[in-house]
């Protein structure tokens, strides 16, 4: 089932400034995001993205061991979406974390499923 999932990087920024065309993608596919700060490493962003991907695709009401197993099976998708070596910074020039209730800077992705019989990536 996870081989039918398509994860497409869309945009980087805060939710309140998201362009209309990116918002429109959210009407056709699930939008997920991970917060990114200047100190974030690739391994951490990948781990958080995998957790979010499992939650969106399979729900949050499952045992931790099952979530972990699904996240491992999605490793290739997540590595393609967040490239680099595990110890590298994701984006050194990302804005610092917000103070108080401010919005976090995020990397946004579309999650969709390939239709059976379609080999092209991104078709849903």
Span between termini: 14 Å
- Basic shape: globular
Helical content class: 25-40%
> Which regions are unreliable across 5 or more consecutive residues at pLDDT < 50?
120-124
Strand order of the largest sheet: 1-3-2
Alpha carbon gyration radius: 15 Å
Question: Helix-strand pattern, N to C?
Answer: EHEHHHE
What does the model show?
The structure is a single chain. The chain has 124 residues and is α+β, with helices and mostly antiparallel strands. The protein has four helices and three strands. The chain has helices spanning 20-28, 42-58, 64-73, 75-81; strands at residues 5-13, 30-35, 106-113. The protein has a three-stranded antiparallel beta sheet with strand order 1-3-2, sandwiched between helices. Helix 2 (42-58) packs across helix 3 and helix 2 crosses helix 4. The longest helix has 17 residues, at 42-58.
Task: Note the main attributes of this structure.
alpha+beta; 3 strands; disordered C terminus; globular; 124 residues
Short description:
The chain has about 120 residues and is of the alpha+beta class. It is about 35% helix and about 20% strand.
Write the layout of secondary structure elements.
Elements: E1 5-13, H1 20-28, E2 30-35, H2 42-58, H3 64-73, H4 75-81, E3 106-113
Helix pairs in contact: 2-3, 2-4
